[in-house]
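Intended use. Records like the one below are meant for learning the mapping from a protein sequence to its folded structure. Do not use them to infer anything beyond what is encoded.
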Amino acid sequence: MSGEHRKGFWLTLGGALAFTPDALLIRLTDVDSFTLAFGRGLLGGTVILLGFALYARSEFFGAVRHLGRWGALVCFLQAACSIAFYAAFSYTSVANVLVIFACTPLIAAVLSKMIFNEGISSATRWAIVGAALGLMVVASGSLDSIQWFGDSLALLNAVMLALLYTILRGHREINMVPAAGIGLLLTAVVALMFAKFPVMDSVQWASLVLAGLVVLPLALVLMTLGPRYLPAPEVAMISLLEAVLGPLWVWWVIGENPGWRTIAGGSVVVVVLMVHSAVRLRSEGHQVSR
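Structure written out for the chain above:
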């Protein structure tokens, strides 16, 4: 393992692990989705922009101006993703949201084909079919309840996030870190109009502040830096930690049982994504060796 590969591995692993308690903190905050989006967006966006300002110094405003129309689109997608993601938790289980979220790389492959006319390998095609079957099992437990709406919001979030990642890949010349911060602040502005702002106890405040000031900014920064040094399949495999550990944290701490359909379908999705990442990683390794 080279020095850069090792750096990328630990950065990405750190980001994925930092994200794993995020769903638990959302549940512990226990407020309406717009209040949640406002608080986390305001705190997280402020921390990211302040951190980037300290890093960029005199080049900060130049970097913001350089975002252009693609950066503006990333800001709007970031805000839309955040609102859809938090709203999904109000209607369905943590496990359902994170299992659907884990399919983002496969959705991104389809969007890359549509936007950039990139080829889709046979392994990715089979992975899309397998993941779709797993998601059908997950969704089958939601058809007779309001959970279907939460699952739909989670899928909408995954599609928009996949589009965001596709734009980032197509415009690597633009530093999108300030766009992430601005997008979170935009989330707060939109959520402000609909938030209920209920009275919160100490546990709720602690969960909101911990997520907004530490977990969200730290995880986003690490997951932005790490993939620069790792192959995409390895990043996707490490990122599965959130889909696996996130529901376990919630199950263990507050007893939210995801149900057998979600466990069965989620297991199919996770196994499919792991095999897909391993196949792609092996394929890229063979290409490099040649």
